[in-house]
Amino acid sequence: MSTPPVLIPHASGTNRDEEAAQAIRLAGGMPTIAHVNELRSGEVRIADYAAILLPGGFSYGDALGAGGRFALELRTWFADELAAAAAAGKPMLGICNGFQVLVKAGLLPGPMGKPRSVTLTENAEGRFECRWVTLRIEASCRSGWLGSVGGTTIRCPIAHGEGRVAVADAATADRLEDGLVAFRYLADGTRPTSSHPNAASGAYPANPNGSVNDIAGICDEQGTIVGLMPHPEDHVLAWQRPSGPEGGSGLPLFEAFVAGAR
Amino acid sequence: MTVRIDVTAPDDPRGAHVVANAPLVGVVALAGCRVTRVHHVEGDVTATQIAELCEQVLVDPVVDSSIVDGVTPAQGRVVEVALMPGATDPDARELEQAARNLGLPAIRVVTARRYDLIGELSDTDVATLTRRLLANDTIEISTEGELPAEFAGAAEADVRVDLVPLDSLSDDELAQLSHERVLSLDLREMQAIQAHFAAEGRHPRDAELETLAQTWSEHCVHKTFRATIDLTHTAADGTVTRTQHDGLLPALREVTEELDPPWLRSAFVDDAGIVAFDDEFDIAFKVETHNHPSALEPFGGANTGVGGVVRDVIGVSARPIACTDVLCFGPADLPDDQLPTGVLHPRRIRDGVVAGIGDYGNKLGLPTVNGAVLYHEGYTANPLVYCGALGILPHGSHPTKPEVGDRIISLGGRVGRDGIHGATFSSAGMDASTVDHVGSAVQIGDPITEKGLIEVIERARDAHLYNAITDCGAGGFSSSVGEMGEDLGVDVDLSAVPLKYPGLQPWEIWLSEAQERIVIAVPPAKLHMLRDLCGAWDVEVTDLGTFTGSERLVVRYGDTPVVDVPMAFLHDGIPRREMDAAWADSAPTDVVVPAIGVSHVLRLLAHPNVASKEDIIRRYDHEVRGGTVVRPYVGPEADGPADAAVLKPLGTAGTKAVVLSNGICPSVGRHDPYAMALLAMDEAVRNLVAVGGDPDQVAVLDNFCWGDPTKSDRLGSLVRAVQGCTEGARRYSMPFISGKDSLFNEFDGEAIPGTLLISALGLVPDLHRAIDSAGMADGDDVWLVGEHQRALGGSLASDEFNLGATDVPTPLHDPLPRYRAIHAAIASGLISAAHDCSDGGLAVAVAEMAIAARLGVTINVPADGFDPATALVNEAPGRLVLTASVAERPAVAAMLGEHGRRIGSVTGDTSVTLGEVVVPLDQAVAASTKGLVG
Q1: I want to staple B704 with a disulfide (CB 3.0 to 4.6 A). Which of A99, B15, B130, B741 is the partner?
Q2: Nearest neighbour of B621 by CB, restricted to A132, A159, A242
Q3: Vertex B634, ends B628 and B639: CA angle to 5°?
């Protein structure tokens, strides 16, 4: 099998790029971490990559709202390249800060350029929080590359202060439920022994940030762009899991992502 | 023109936070609070361009509403708060950058926060809320009503160098000058400076005096730790011993040199200690304190404390990979009328410190994995904030020798007046007026700039772009450049230094402790490569001057001389102190131990020093970098406290992992500081062994936080603690590789309890064999290693039940055999769970394991000739509770030998049975996680 080249853009304040690279390698891809300045100068070209992974962190310190400035840069500097990548069906995945960037840039749920009706904002508890959660990859999600892992669950940590999915109105919530919800927090998500995972029904801490309808991640209309707040890249090796039951690895998600790039 | 843009999110949780905290500061009438982000934008921009800025970056269309250049209608009383001009303001900086990205005309921005306080509030209520919840006047300005925008001017230095005549000053006048300029120099040191400049036949310049004060500060030169000390020690039995000590620091280094294990790479000589990890990589570890700043501005103090210690690790060419923090606060429920004037409430200090640590570590992408939180009245005015950082570097990759002709290059943040006198300020006690004198010593960090330094230094190291490196900490350039050039001499031109704002005099630029700076020595031929690298990573480069070979410290501002002193005088001219110390250990008392029942066990579990710190821990990212093997909280409910952290550094091969642990027992030190040191070392080691660490390759760090060492009792207990450390290093065969002392932790003449933190760094040979305190299964045997002791002095039980015990446990004489036996059993995979006995003794240890695993445990408390209560709650060292399956019983018995015995089993029931005492598991869980009810 080929090892598709995967671009991992790094803005000042990005972190978890190295873990994302590790996950891509383990999943059979060839990761390249490139600073935004290198993309801007043309030293590294988005077009040369088969997939794009926007990693976690605090790009530009999350001043003015998480991911805001990086999102502005995507819109003002790279809109055409990103549109071309999306048109070519190249998978794009944003994790945590990367998800925030994609949402603030208007790429999720998209389309870019229309007024935004979905956002990521302060956790309902009003503070940064780090804990393990359980996610379900929604079988009903329209994302093609996620399809092979639809219906499976992932256990992995969250680590964010602005991860609450909020929508402008009920119509937007309905629109998301029409195949755009990619990941949902499950009940007992913080409790690794959970044997009967059900939707979290909004209850903290299973839904750790107060996201509407327990949404942990979404995709765009075409299903090529996917974003989520939790960190599956921090659970790709068995020993990374806290004590508790086997399984819940994030690796199949990255394998699906890399497969989508082939 | 200047435009004001108000942005508010109706359900901003920060407003709810203010409402929730108002009753805690005595304001019960606050019914609601709306928080508004205020931006003053100055520049030649049109209304359309302002609208674009709002739409593109400032206003989230889903949750925010905004008002441009209008007055937001007041909802109740309005208070506005802004940072003092010149303070780090990332929001303003990013908005200015966003305007550039959008191709708008250049703008300048200052930000503020507006609070609409809703409810029937009195003037006093508003003043209280402002002072205690909304603003900190050390770094912020606030007013009721609208605050006008204050823009700083263009950045140019105020080139003024003043002479400070010393020749005619009397001894009294010298002492007074030292006090007035916050030099923190004593008379003999002032006289030495006076004599030096008299011999040179000139007056010192202001910068020269300041440079000497910084270099000679307690903070930088550790003069107490280098002094000769006469100690008079009175033991508990009344025996008096007089000893002479030829330097405390040399004594600690001497043991390390004596032990000199093959895996030791570097101890005491650099910004951090370094030990081997595997054939390819070394590990660097450093623990610092940031106590004084955290007392005045908890968020900024702790924030820059993390930033500082991380830079120490960068300063040995390592990539930082983890943070630790140990915090000591006054009681969170301290009544307001017991709070000294000029002191922030312990709860506010705690919340600010925790937020500051989380903010910096999280934004650097570093897991904060190990720590402790202690509460005691003695820390009310002087909280302790120990910040540690761990780093990794390829073996042999850290260059340490600058060469003549190398450029002196500063990387990172710009210079402001921030942090001036930090080193000398932390070398004196505090009182109610401290804020007015040294408010400028407190700063807020900028982790994103430091993140850039991490990325750039790792790459510059691998490309061999520099010959030496050090971080800019206390004393700023004066300290970093002064130390780096000690052997060669330097010529520095301050006019090249980029400033945050105007008006700094040369000595202020030279002394500023502005954060996020690293200084490196770069061969001129490699300078262009460094500039390219830094350009790619958005890191600012400043060429300060050159390493000369003149053996003089020469600093200029353009052509204006600022400093010109011989390196020899700067570094060796300080007179060695001769000090007297006296210490008397507590005399024994008669202790009557009450029978221990269920309520006693629950009280111990609910004690703030024992109860769950999950609320704090979850504010820190402990997962980033994907290497966390043993987390701060363990078990199926993730709420059982772990003994130590185990980390597998990202990018390392094999199964080896790092283990970090700590030991701290200041309550013992009040009675016997020597025993405290040995007992703290034991705690660090048993924590480390409990998760699978190898006791035969452990390095330790010392951190002493003490009162004013010029007072003989403070110094006496300090010397005794150092004696305990050197003895402990020998008994445990563990070298000290780095240390730090923070003295003068006093307020109005009251000292903190002398507090020694021992941080231990070790290895787990196979991460798959790392265990925690929750891994046991129903039916497992419970084993106890170690013996009880009768002494309850310094124990949690003595404190909680007011026993008045003063007699402290006897430290172990030959600790390694038992720890090797335990380690062998764990490394063989025989042990399912382990937990050490520390605060609250066997009772708390067993209960915590049951809580962590959510399984019942039954033990027969071996009395060993003591009453059952003493056996349950004594805190004798060297004890661990282990569990193992019944099938492994013979193997475990053989491996533990005389050190272990079977005391019970893990049960399927729902109680913790400690002999006669049966504690329902759900009550134990509740006490640990929610405190005592009713």
Answers
A1: B741
A2: A159
A3: 130
Instruction: Check if B451 contacts A (Cβ < 8 Å).
Output: yes
Of B515, B588, B504, nearest to B88 (Cα)?
Answer: B515
Whether residues B91 and A63 touch (CB distance < 8 A) is answered with yes
Average pLDDT over residues B456-462: 98
The whole-number pLDDT of residue B424 equals 63
Candidates B619, B622, B635; nearest CB to A127: B619
pLDDT in tens, B646-676: 999 999 999 999 999 999 999 999 999 999 9
The span from the CA of A75 to the CA of A104, in Å, is 10
A254 touches chain B (CB under 8 A): no
CB contact (8 A) between residue B17 and residue A126: yes
Using CA atoms, how far apart are residues B531 and B181, in angstroms rounded to an integer? 38
pLDDT tens digits along B253-269: 999 999 999 999 999 98
Residues B313-337 pLDDT 10s: 999 999 999 999 999 999 999 998 9
- Over range A18-47, report the average pLDDT: 97
Q: Specify the pairing of strand B264-266 against strand B273-276.
A: antiparallel
Distance from CA of A252 to the nearest CA of B (A): 17
For residue B425, the model assigns a pLDDT of 60
- The confidence band for B522, taking pLDDT boundaries of 50, 70 and 90, is very high
B645 touches chain A (CB under 8 A): no
Task: Please state the domain extents for chain B.
Answer: 2-144, 171-237+399-576
- Mean per-residue pLDDT of chain B: 93
| Residue B113 region by backbone torsions, left for phi larger than 0, else alpha for psi between -120 and 50, else beta | beta
Point out the residue among A35, A76, A127 whose CB comes nearest to the CB of B536: A35
Q: How far is CA B395 from CA B275, B276, B281, B466, B772, in A?
A: 9, 8, 5, 16, 30
| Interface residue A64 vs chain B (CB under 8 A) | yes
Asked if B537 has any chain A CB less than 8 Å from its own CB, the reply is: yes
Asked if A242 contacts A78 with a C-beta cutoff of 8 angstroms, the reply is: no
Cβ of residue A125 closer than 8 Å to a chain B Cβ: yes
Strand partners of residue A215: A184
Strands across the sheet containing B833-836: B833-836, B880-884, B781-785, B900-907, B856-859, B911-914, B917-920
> Which of the listed CATH numbers 3.30.390.50, 3.90.650.10, 3.40.47.10, 2.60.120.650 matches domain B171-237+399-576?
3.90.650.10
Tell me the average pLDDT of chain A. 92
Paired with B704 in beta bridges are: B741, B756
What tokens appear for B510 in the block? 């030279």
- B101–A76 CB contact, under 8 Å: yes
Please report where in the chains the tokens 């031109």 appear, as a residue.
B493
Cα-only R_g, chain B: 28
Domain ranges of chain A: 5-261
> Which range is least confidently modeled, A219-223, B309-313, B588-592, B765-769?
B588-592
Token pair recorded at residue B330: 């006054």
Residue B506: pLDDT over 60: yes
Cβ separation of B57 and A64 shorter than 8 Å? Answer: yes
Nearest by CB to A116, which of B61, B101, B628? B61
Cα separation, B413 vs B401, whole angstroms = 24
- Chain B residues touching A191 at Cβ < 8 A: 636-638
- B639 and chain A in contact, CB less than 8 A: no
* Under 8 Å between Cβ of B410 and B450: no
Superfamily the domain A5-261 falls into: Class I glutamine amidotransferase (GATase) domain (3.40.50.880)
Residues B223 and B186 sit within 8 Å (Cβ to Cβ): no
Mean pLDDT within B690-694: 98
Whether residue A239 and residue B98 make contact (CB cut-off 8 A), yes or no, is: no
Longest dimension (CA), chain A: 51
